[in-house]
Amino acid sequence: MSKIYDVIVLGAGPAGLAAGLYAGRSRLSVLIVEKGQDGGQISITDEIENYPGQVVDQPESGPSLIARMTEQAKKFGAERVSDTIKEVSLEGEVKVLKGEKGEYQAKNIIIATGAHARPIGCKGEAEFLGRGVSYCATCDANFFEDFEVYVVGGGDSAVEEAMYLTKFARKVTIIHRRDELRAAKSIQEKAFKNDKLHFMWDTVVEEVGGDGILSWMTVKNVKTGEVTKIEADEDDGMFGVFGFIGTIPNSDIFKGSVEMDERGYIPTDADMHTNIPGVYAAGDVRVKSLRQVVTAAADGAIAAVQVERSMA
């Protein structure tokens, strides 16, 4: 691809789509590169209640919100390509991105690659992924209708997804390594009122197993050291374990090119500038105190406006 864009946006989550919308509206030539489905993590969220402007008492799904963002970016001229970027060259006035399908060039780059679910970290986890272990309640909840499921984590996402799972599962138990939740108080209040939701405090999952499908796990009390084996109900023959213990930034491809912290997140200033001129980071991939749809969209808008001003 010989065209040199004003800006290439890597990622089509809320940050990337907002960046594409603002860049296109500013009459910049913009290309959004996304390797998978639009939306990133929010595309697997069943209900969003805290995005400004929503109709009160009418929460919508992540996919429906993202669909509107995608159409907005398209309306204002953002071009699209589906590709996986394998190599980047970010120095100089023209940045070069090499993907599986082609090569792309731009004067500016907005990194909006987001983050992905952090593994639970127990033995057997990878072996039983998709056979009892999941990181997406929206994707897999229906597989566990009338079964027991366990949710590992104690933050907003873990508790919200656990409540969603109660719509399907017979019983949902939150396993948390502390003796209190980290979720927002408003979310905790809803959780504690849910009769189908139970709690296993001061506990971590040590191992999961079964004969082809998840049917047992061992958990350890972090205070007493006691290890307990939990087995599926004989009639069920299986149960589910959902992990929601944080995220890992999708930034590996930029290692050695852009400054990162020890966890792989990209530091920026308030205007989304990285340490490389013409390279910006927006959304969950950057260092920030709050990772929500609204902050990701704001990041993308700021980054695009900064690109426009740099070229004025």
From TrEMBL:
One GO term (biological process): removal of superoxide radicals
The record, for Pfam families, names: Pyr_redox_2
Which EC number applies?
Answer: 1.8.1.9
Catalysed conversion reaction: [thioredoxin]-dithiol + NADP(+) = [thioredoxin]-disulfide + NADPH + H(+)
Matches recorded under PROSITE patterns: PYRIDINE_REDOX_2
Residue ranges of domain FAD/NAD(P)-binding in the record: 5-300
Reply yes or no: does the keyword NADP apply. yes
Q: How is the cofactor bound?
A: Binds 1 FAD per subunit.
Q: Which cofactors does this gene product need?
A: FAD
Q: Which GO terms describe its cellular component?
A: cytoplasm
A Gene Ontology molecular function term of the record: thioredoxin-disulfide reductase (NADPH) activity
Q: Subunit structure of this entry?
A: Homodimer.
* Protein family (similarity comment): Belongs to the class-II pyridine nucleotide-disulfide oxidoreductase family.
Which protein is depicted? Thioredoxin reductase
What is the protein's species of origin?
Answer: Dorea formicigenerans ATCC 27755
**Taxonomic lineage of this organism?**
Bacteria, Bacillati, Bacillota, Clostridia, Lachnospirales
The gene for this chain is trxB
